[in-house]
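Box S1 | Example of a co-folding query
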Amino acid sequence: MLTKNEALNGLPGAPHISYRNEALHLEDASLGDLARQYGTPLFVYSRAAMLAALAAYQAGFAGRNAQICYAMKANSSLGVLQVFAQAGCGFDIVSGGELERVQAVGGDMRKVIFSGVGKTRAEMRQALAAGIGCFNVESEAELDVLSDVALVMGLVAPVSIRVNPNVDPKTHPYISTGLQGNKFGVAHEDALRIYRHAASLKGLRVVGIDCHIGSQITETTPYLDAMDRILDLVTDIESAGIAIEHIDFGGGLGINYNQDAPPAADALWLELLAKLDARGYGNRKLMIEPGRSLVGNAGVCLTEVLYLKPGEQKNFCIIDAAMNDLPRPAMYQAFHAIVPLAPRGDVPELLCDVVGPVCESGDWIGRDRRLAVSAGDHLAVLSAGAYCMSMASNYNTRGRAAELLVDGAKVHLIRERETAADQMRAEKLVC
Ligand code: LLP
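Box S1 (continued) | Returned holo structure for LLP
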């Protein structure tokens, strides 16, 4: 738990999140008021924070031929997608469902890239019919199937091959993807041969190369190393007579959860562009697929303290948000800062685990936190804009939370709270 002074100075999500007169605000909206009006658990996102995160990338790419494709798996709520579509972003999608979400917000299909190791034929058909910009292909077998599917439709599929640069991103093993021995991409040493194969298939047109080395990366070096490895390949592939129109460096830039200090997007790209320029690729079309760094610190999850339960070994602060709403602590032992919406000086601080109501010992949101709270108080779980709602489940038949998008003092309800009836809608009784 951050002390109040630390909280005031360096909240993840600052400057869009701040205490004003002892009340936590996101932009100009009082989060306590929103919790009382809309109930909890409740996700609240700041439009300005998303646009500021995007602006850092845009500043980094100023004057370059670059396309930012928001990796919507981080948060695919329609209201969030609208913000990025209106700002000119493309989208990195990984399923037919995500494609339909892009269509629902009127996104530009030519700016859509389709990643993922297991695209089905049906998803390929859907994406070809929609006219997406590029398939990021992850295996030789997928190339063959995609070519067949395109030929049957009388179309040619634009492809990039995801290459595994075998660089250690120094992040959690579950979210590290660019090393040998995980399921993503094709091996660096096989890439040239696979590019030749792709170029020989009638249903495909090679347009690019891509990589994505992992997520929550807080250092610049892994990106520089991956770029070197990819540029070596571009040289080899083009020497073999296969043109590479764009280079896609994936996503992965980390955010501040707990005194993390990732490079700023513009600073990172200053260094990467210097390398690209030095190697003669500075004018090439560039693509990136950021997810977390665009939305992670733009969102909070508001929750109510239900019970304080002192124990012999541990004290528990039981809240109404749980692992179904905020799965990252249970899945990755991830840290999210937890702060009160209205700090109190009149109750003693308790060292406690902050846990949800789900019937699993793994249902914890924060461990060993210092909180001065009573039942009925509200807390904010910070850095909850990415990989929270998009990974939420209905475990324990808990309805998914409502979501709000704040724009200055204006508040938009972008998702209603899910009811039990919503959850049972597709189910049938046995008759
Ligand atoms: N591109 C590809 C091909 C990806 O697989 C991913 C994320 C991204 C882009 C976006 O990465 P980002 O900029 O968000 O780091 N659920 C985990 C993170 C999983 C990331 C999966 N792939 C978490 O909560 O930490």
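The radius of gyration is 23 Å. The pocket of LLP is lined by residues 71, 73-74, 92, 115, 175, 212, 215-216, 250-253, 289-293, 328, 332, 387 (CB under 6 Å).
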